[in-house]
Amino acid sequence: LRGVQVSPVNENIISAGRPWWERYQPISYKLTTRSGNEEEFGDMVRRCNEVGVRIYVDVLLNHMSGDFDGVAVGTAGTEAEPSKKSFPGVPFTAQDFHPTCEITDWNDRFQVQQCELVGLKGLDQGSEWVRSKLIEFLDHLIELGVADFRVDA
Q1: Domain count across the chain
Q2: Which of 7, 64, 69, 115 has its CA 20 to 30 A from that of 84?
Q3: pTM of this prediction?
Q4: For residue 129, what are the CA distances in angstroms to 53, 76, 94, 140, 145?
Q5: Would you say residue 59 lies in a domain?
Q6: Which residue segment(s) compose the domain that 28 sits in?
Q7: Is residue 22 part of a domain?
Q8: How far from each other are the two terminal CA atoms of the chain, in whole angstroms?
Q9: Mean pLDDT of the chain
Q10: Integer Cα distance of 90 and 15 in angstroms
Q11: What CA–CA distance (Å, rounded) separates 7 from 90?
């Protein structure tokens, strides 16, 4: 079996200096990054599948972007206010996230599961709305021919 794992393909914040980790700061599920748009991604997946190479996408299901001063702009032009847990490109609002708390004790199960890792806004997957948006995103990738996923912590 041949396959390639690709970086997250959904819209992320544009951070000064364009560091690698900005791709792990999602603000919407639009398929536009500095690597290309949805049409280009779908074409790549199709061509890879035609020659027996499967595509595995790194996906971020636990969080959205971390704190950002003011309005963050994404790779598809979407604006968000991560510090207010406002991601209108999905749309997610503050009610779709766990309460803000910091991990101070890595042995405390509650903190590890419910608090923010380095300020990343933790999605409340107990919410049917949140789960529906995540499933919609994954289903769309499958429709484009993606073989599987790597779920980033």
Answers
A1: 1
A2: 7
A3: 0.91
A4: 34, 23, 13, 17, 25
A5: yes
A6: 3-96+125-151
A7: yes
A8: 25
A9: 93
A10: 20
A11: 20
pLDDT tens sequence across 21-78: 999 999 999 999 999 999 999 999 999 999 999 999 999 999 999 877 789 999 999 9
Query: In the structure encoding, which two tokens stand for residue 145, read together?
Result: 């021919």
Query: Strands 63-64, 121-122: parallel, antiparallel or unpaired by DSSP?
Result: antiparallel
Helix (H) / strand (E) containing 107 = none
Give φ, ψ of 86 to 5 degrees: -115, 110
In a domain, 27, yes or no: yes
b/e code 136-145 from CB counts within 10 Å (16+ = b)? ebbeebeebb
The amino acid sitting at 11 is E
Residue 17 lies in a domain: yes
